[in-house]
């Protein structure tokens, strides 16, 4: 019987060590303070043992784990009060939600100079009768700020139905910083749509790796003769 308990203890020690290694490998960043802050780096989901280990490593006397959120109280002290509150938001990129939500609806947008009153925000206003239309082909860029970081699964684009051939040679980007003057060099290119669009079904763009973590989504037209014309853009996450 004693051998059995020794064996069980040995297995538990291996598990804890493995979990600790997982913590070192995947616990990439954290923000501390009295309020929750959206993380700027991708983090992977961890289980309750990881939360407990991290609380122990930071000398926190109390922690709370629920649904992927590890709340650690009073880091470095022995009091059980929660005057110092640290919250770590943990993500699992493989955990696909049952319902993907449009994270772009009515979010802030920027774009190149536009034609007439067809401003950039009209591509995310939820109305397919409005549009963003670039003033000239040299102004063919558009970007939305999701106001938060998400695991983006799909980008659903409805180009202008009356000029379907205009939607071709399109690059789609995801980034973590604000785009300036259509410069997407700091972004990650996630798709290239050769086109032209057939004018029938909406264009569903999936990142090369099926999912990408980011806050800003940009669309750029490379045509030198056709303007970027977007009726509706959904960012599904």
Describe this structure in words.
With 237 residues, the chain is of the alpha+beta class. The chain folds into 2 domains: 2-89, no CATH class; 109-236, Jelly Rolls. Helices cover 15% and strands 30% of the residues. It has helices at residues 2-26, 48-57, and strands spanning 62-66, 69-73, 85-89, 109-111, 132-133, 141-152, 154-159, 170-175, 188-193, 203-205, 212-221, 229-236. The chain has a 5-stranded antiparallel beta sheet with strand order 4-6-11-8-9, with no helix packed on it. A 4-stranded antiparallel beta sheet has the order 5-12-7-10, with no helix packed on it. The protein has a 3-stranded antiparallel beta sheet with strand order 1-2-3, covered by helices on one side. Helix 1 crosses helix 2 (48-57). It is elongated. The model is unreliable at 11-46 and 78-91 (pLDDT under 50). Residues 1-20 form the signal peptide.
